[in-house]
Design a protein that fits this description.
The longest helix has 20 residues. Helices cover 48% and strands 17% of the residues. Strand 5 and strand 6 form a beta hairpin. The protein has a 5-stranded parallel sheet, with helices on both faces. The chain is an alpha/beta fold. 35% of the residues are buried. The structure holds adenosine-5'-diphosphate and guanosine-5'-monophosphate. Guanosine-5'-monophosphate binds next to strand 5, strand 6 and helix 4.
Length: 231
């Protein structure tokens, strides 16, 4: 059985950057290319970042039960995003693990259907840094940046539904942490005695689990003005 890794993050946290670093470092991973009814942005190409489809086609896919999950994201003019089942079948056939880059709603649906899926939430170091990254990326309008920051606050409140919490402060370190989570899950699933080096990876991953994250997350939540959660 393949491992399904769900990666979610508020937009601008650095998820795409981290996932692309992960793919450079770790072999045997497939990326699930989602379907969406939104229009391509900038240099996005059909079949690379997403499959861009008309709403009628998306709805036909829902009818044909082709999605593992789908959601209307951001309330984004009612734009749909969905994960096709065929990516899971393909990964399985290849003996690969699968990475899903999906939002909080999609992650909850996947966890219900695939309880063994491993979920990872990526947080920005604080609200100011997230705002800076969104501006610096230079693809969103002022209105879009405001909306994303607002959505980020709501998404961040959901962090405790995830298995692992990563704070993307220093890129290289966060990429190594993401890699440690993926490799540690493979080691645990394999079930045979880990080597010394593997034990270290498992230990790093353990430190990133939700139970270990509450204290790290408090100041981030506070910077977004969310109600602190009692631990
Ligand atoms: P997301 O996929 O979460 O929307 P991106 O990967 O597009 O975010 O990253 C948003 C911006 O922040 C990009 O310009 C990216 O280069 C930058 N970025 C990503 N990670 C870091 C980091 N650790 N430190 C500083 N900038 C970062
Ligand atoms: P964007 O339009 O900025 O590429 O993505 C917006 C949001 O949609 C992100 O949070 C991204 O993770 C999420 N997303 C992308 N693909 C899917 C998908 O297949 N299903 C769900 N539920 N969310 C998705």
């Amino acid at each position: 059985m393949s491992i399904v890794f769900i990666v979610s993050a508020p937009s601008g946290s650095g998820k795409s950057t981290l996932v692309s670093e992960l793919f450079k470092m770790v072999p045997g991973l497939d990326f699930s290319i989602s379907y969406t009814t939104r229009a391509p942005r900038g240099s996005e190409q059909n079949g690379k970042e997403y499959f861009f489809v008309p709403e009628a086609e998306f709805k036909a896919m829902i009818e044909a039960d082709e999605f593992l999950e789908y959601a209307r994201v951001f309330g984004n003019d009612g734009k749909y995003y969905g994960t096709a089942r065929r990516f899971q079948r393909e990964a399985e056939k290849q003996g690969h693990d699968l990475v899903l880059d999906i939002d909080v709603q999609g992650a909850a649906q996947i966890k219900k259907r695939l309880p063994d899926a491993v979920s990872i939430f990526i947080l920005p170091p604080d609200r100011d840094k997230l705002e800076w990254r969104l501006r610096n990326r230079g693809v969103d309008s002022e209105e879009e940046i405001r909306r994303r920051l607002d959505t980020a606050r709501r998404e961040i409140e959901q962090y405790s539904r995830y298995d692992y919490i990563l704070v993307n402060n220093v890129l290289e370190q966060s990429a190594d942490e993401l890699k440690a989570v993926v490799l540690a899950e493979r080691i645990i699933k394999r079930g045979t005695k880990p080597t010394r080096e593997e034990e270290q990876l498992v230990e790093i991953a353990q430190g990133l689990r939700l139970e270990q994250a509450r204290e790290r997350v408090q100041p981030i939540l506070a910077s977004f003005g969310t109600v602190p959660i009692r631990t």
